[in-house]
Amino acid sequence: MKQLAEFVKQRRKEVNLTQEEFAERTGVALTVVRKIEQGKTNLNMDKVNLVLNMFGHELAPVSLKELKE
């Protein structure tokens, strides 16, 4: 979660948006952006993907087998 938090915060700042502006543009609540940037672990994957879509990314489940290959 730390990598996700750092990625979102850094990218948001690169496009010069406040957390409030970023939440509005991505269509999520301000609390969602704050939770992501704080590295919280109880996040809704759909909401996280709305945020990541802003940067052309998304999270998806990966099996342990795929990680080992």
What's this model, at a glance?
The protein is mainly alpha-helical and 69 residues long. It contains five helices and no strands. It has one domain: Orthogonal Bundle (434 Repressor (Amino-terminal Domain)).
Features:
elongated, 69 residues, 5 helices, mainly alpha, 434 Repressor (Amino-terminal Domain)
CATH homologous superfamily classification:
lambda repressor-like DNA-binding domains
Q: Name the average pLDDT.
A: 92
**Overall domain count:** 1
Radius of gyration: 13 Å
- Which blocks of ≥5 consecutive residues have pLDDT under 50? none
Polypeptide structure, described:
By secondary structure, this protein is mainly alpha-helical. It has one domain (2-68): Orthogonal Bundle (434 Repressor (Amino-terminal Domain)). Helix content is 62%, strand content 0%. The chain contains five helices and no strands. The longest helix has 13 residues, at 2-14. The model has no long low-confidence stretch (mean pLDDT 92).
Helices and strands in order:
Elements: H1 2-14, H2 19-26, H3 30-37, H4 45-53, H5 64-68
Helix pairs in contact: 2-3
